[in-house]
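Exam prep: given the inputs below (a chain plus DLZ), describe the expected output before reading on.
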Amino acid sequence: MTTLRFVLGDQLTRSLAALNDIAAGDIVLMVEVADETTYVKHHKQKIAFILSAMRHFADEFRDENIHVDYVKLDDPGNTGSFSGELQRALKRHKASRVVVTSPGEWRVLADMTTWQATLGIPVDIRDDDRFFATPQRFADWAASRKSLRMEFFYREMRRESDLLMQGDDPVGGQWNFDSDNRKRLPKSLQLPQRFGYEPDAITQDVLALVATRFADHFGDLAPFDWAVTRSDALRALQEFLDRALPSFGDYQDAMATGEPFVFHAVISPYLNAGLLTPREICVAAEREYIEKRAPLNAVEGFIRQILGWREYIRGIYWLKMPDYAETNALNAVRSLPWLYWSGETKMHCMAEAIGQTKRTAYSHHIQRLMVTGNFALLAGIVPKQVAEWYLVVYADAYDWVELPNVHGMSQFADGGLLASKPYASSGAYIDRMSDFCKDCAYDVKVKSGPTACPFNYLYWAFLIRNAKTLRGNVRMAMPYRTLAGWDEPRKAAITAEAERFLDGLAVE
Ligand code: FAD
Ligand code: DLZ
Ligand code: SF4
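Solution:
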């Protein structure tokens, strides 16, 4: 009566639901499969990170004398799919039962729920309890509300988790210190240095595999310096707490040339793959406040990202899938320009954000939202294509977290379910929060004409194009009041200028 404990590549957590009652004689199954490495053409570093982290995780079971059956991508007979590899493993081990943890993605859950019938043995699919809220908890909250704003969900999560609470009240008398968190980087400020993690022999093997097998995927493979074990991911977290957290709040929205990380944690790949858990990160951050090593605006701002945004995003995903992936409320029809893949453009902000992404498989939130996301929104690019780009290019990207961020937060494709207004802005925002504009071929102060910053005319053309849908939004009242003063020829001229610019961009 052998039980197979099937662990997926983003379930690398020893306390995982599928493992918590592991018994002598059980076998842990882990499989590298082509379906997962190529369902989109992931950034090379993302594949290397997952495969190396999986191989290291398997070794940790061996150290515990737990039998682990690990199938490598190049193993003879590898069928390339989760279900195919499970079927082969069942035969190999004459297993009578499978225990697995519910997957992060709708696509995989749809497949997993067929396994019991197709394999003809019991398949125990357990809730993934690594989050603060279950999908059902979120659905219950959503059912009781007219508007699904993150802030209100976050307050419930604060109360339930008791993080940064003083009895029933938030520590410091405020739930949210966001208004303190919008500073530009002063020139003289020293940014924290990050450790890299030298690839060991296991990682070297994976890097060689990725270099040959995924040569045509996006992004640079070297230098590869991600942590691939829990102990190194914990070091990365500690490094963030010591060196960056105190300034995280102040400079959360700041961007700088040549500085992809600023004061961000750079832990999302570890968190999403399970090397770190959200609760331990939030508790560690709270301790920095309690022990007076980091100010409240920084710690609250950071905890809100994980306890608030991350949980909320996951809740929306499971509440609204599969229809959410089809949303396109602004009827965006343009194809993704080639510059998203090449990084070749005279727009310095875009070249910088995409260049960093190619080199590191990372960019921080404001670059994703207010540079690459903002441009796609203003340009009217099909949300599905935008979502695919984000899923490909970041080491932390999984459908459950990428999709609501793209369709909901960034592209307003869900019509305002997630965001109360589109995150659309002219070049002025980028100029305020970065040093990009001073070295750009375009002039951020110029509104139209060949030297004008494209974000400026694209912004007004976006408002004109979407006036019917957005004019009634109270949070958009100001720009629409400005537009009301424009005559038709002026509107037509801006629209034509934006279209000329966009038509001139090469597409795939
Ligand atoms: P920090 O800024 O240091 O924040 C700490 C942690 O908070 C992050 O590690 C992350 O786990 C969590 N977090 C912060 N914001 C969000 C958010 N909006 N949604 C979910 N978690 C959040 N995050 C992903 O993990 N995977 C994605 O595929 C992804 N795609 C995105 C696409 C777009 C268009 C946008 C606007 C955001 C996306 N995000 C995604 C959210 C966010 O940009 C990243 O989590 C963050 O940049 C990761 O870097 P960090 O670890 O340095 O984060
Ligand atoms: C992202 C990824 C990649 C690139 N490769 C694998 C793999 O070979 N085997 C595996 O178990 N998981 C992989 N993953 C993570 C899965 O895509 C992820 O577990 C599912 O999408 C569910 O969230
Ligand atoms: Fe970007 Fe415009 Fe600034 Fe150039 S001028 S960096 S295009 S915002």
